[in-house]
Task: structure prediction
Amino acid sequence: DTEVTQTPKHLVMGMTNKKSLKCEQHMGHRAMYWYKQKAKKPPELMFVYSYEKLSINESVPSRFSPECPNSSLLNLHLHALQPEDSALYLCASSQEGLGNTEAFFGQGTRLTVV
Amino acid sequence: GESVGLHLPTLSVQEGDNSIINCAYSNSASDYFIWYKQESGKGPQFIIDIRSNMDKRQGQRVTVLLNKTVKHLSLQIAATQPGDSAVYFCAETDNYGQNFVFGPGTRLSVLP
Result:
């Protein structure tokens, strides 16, 4: 199994809503990542979890709250988002840090904030 | 030919020709490089990687070249096929392996 599974595939939410994005992998990877990708732009790193601990937060606003319940799951909790937060949110995982092996990406969640 | 659009450079090639996609990286401490392919509506897909102690690596129909002197990476695709049409990103990371940075991307368009 070399898949990273993200749910939901699409999400529309209002600015006062609370929602969560979910990511799951069963490759035994101990590093998991959240990226944000705007149209026609490269993915931008948001958060890195290493061995279930947050190791990098790229100055992401607190309306985005990551959570790693166990080594296979990664969540991104969303609250009070703005329309400019609309983007494709990608989850990835790798064996250790990205310097050692490639990262496997999920298909992303297309988020629209209205 | 290659053109630079408002946001994303585009490379157009004839089916069957070879494609060369270029990438300049900025961090001389970068140790590991990956080429990803991203099709519309999908997540990035691994194509090939190379470490800084190598200057060339070959896969099936793809070759990555690394020139550390000028901090340049290229992806060569042999006998380009319609299924190769996508956006291609280079990505770099340093020895610590957690600051993983993507290049701006190049859209490859294969003409029949």
The radius of gyration of chain A is 13 Å. Residues 29 and 95 of chain A are 4 Å apart (CA to CA).
